[in-house]
Amino acid sequence: xxxxxxxxxxxxxxxxxxxxxxxxxxxxxxxxxxxxxxxxxxxxxxxxxxxxxxxxxxxxxxxxxxxxxxxxxxxxxxxxxxxxxxxxxxxxxxxxxxxxxxxxxxxxxxxxxxxxxxxxxxxxxxxxxxxxxxxxxxxxxxxxxxxxxxxxxxxxxxxxxxxxxxxxxxxxxxx
Length: 175
What we know:
- The protein is built from 3 helices and 8 strands, in the order αβββββββαβα.
- β6 and β7 form a beta hairpin.
- The protein is globular.
- With 175 residues, it is an alpha+beta fold.
C-alpha cells in the first residue's frame, strides 16, 4: 500500500547530492518507492517528483503530468516511473517557462529548457525505453533529472528578477 512521504525542502543537503544508481530494480523497496512517489506527487498536486525529494538518494523519478491547481493546463499522462534516466539528445531550441517545485514551496522561476529532448530510462519492470519528449513533459523530465544531480530550479534562472512568489505567478499566469 502506497503512502504519502514527507517532501524535503530547499536547504536539506540531500537535495544537493548526486543520486546513486539503483543496483537492483527488482528490489521490492524500489517498487514501494515508486508507488509512494506517485501518491506523494498526487497529494501535493505535483506533475513530477524525484526520489531525493523524499530522502531517497537514488536515480529514479516519476513524471505524472495532469491538470491540477498548480498546473491547470498540464497535459494528462499516466504516471511514469523512470529509473536511471538519461538525456541523450537535445533539440537546441530553447524555450522559457515558469517552473515550481515541491521542494521550493511558494516560489516560481522562469527557466530556459530544451523544447524537445531524446531520453532513455528503465521502466519499473526493467524494460529499456528510448523516446522523444516535447513541450511540458520535456520540461518536467529536465527538471526532475536536475534533482538527481543536486540541482534545483532557482539554480537555472538567469536573473533573480526571474524568481517570483507563487501568488504573483498565479496573477500573471491566469488573470
